[in-house]
């Protein structure tokens, strides 16, 4: 008795594990028998089985998704075009910005006059700070 029970349980587990649809198969076989077809319910449709209605619904769903993805693609392409134009504008402005940066670092104003490289010292600042700034040493160094 135990080996038969073990075999049935093992067979049930293996059928479930390999996703074999036993219930629907038995209902289909029972539906073919004249007296049992009145008592047994109709087998449930399988998820993999598709009728014409399911196919049309699936096709419509796919068409809708394609339209949605196409709209997203158009939006992203427009965004890419806008960013490329912005990059072009920045590329054109870059040389003038570099020129301004060079003139500010070299100590000349854009009109050609010499710029004072030393910051003005206030009369209230302590003498050691004024000396350190003039010598371009860190503030914590004493004169």
Which spans have pLDDT < 50 for at least 5 consecutive residues? 115-121
C-alpha termini separation: 105 Å
Task: Give a count of the beta strands, DSSP E runs of length 2 or more.
Answer: 0
Please describe the biggest sheet, giving its number of strands, its sense, and whether it closes into a barrel: none
Let me know the average pLDDT. Answer: 76
What structural category do the secondary elements indicate?
Answer: mainly alpha
Rg over CA atoms = 42 Å
Q: What is the overall silhouette? A: elongated
Helix content class: 55-70%
Strand content: under 5%
H/E element sequence? HHHHH
Number of helices: 5
Topology diagram in text:
Elements: H1 2-17, H2 22-32, H3 34-39, H4 52-106, H5 127-135
């Amino acid at each position: 008795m135990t080996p038969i029970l073990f075999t049935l349980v093992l067979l049930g587990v293996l059928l479930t594990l390999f996703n074999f649809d036993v219930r629907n198969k038995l209902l289909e076989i029972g539906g073919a028998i004249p007296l049992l077809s009145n008592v047994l319910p109709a087998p449930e449709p399988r998820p993999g089985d598709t009728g014409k209605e399911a196919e049309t619904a699936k096709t419509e769903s796919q068409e809708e998704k394609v339209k949605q993805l196409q709209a997203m693609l158009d939006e992203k392409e427009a965004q890419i075009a806008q960013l490329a134009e912005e990059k072009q504008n920045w590329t054109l402005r870059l040389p003038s910005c570099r020129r301004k940066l060079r003139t500010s670092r070299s100590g000349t104003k854009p009109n050609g006059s010499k710029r004072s490289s030393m910051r003005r010292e206030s009369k209230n600042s302590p003498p050691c700070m004024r000396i350190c700034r003039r010598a371009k040493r860190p503030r914590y160094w004493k004169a």
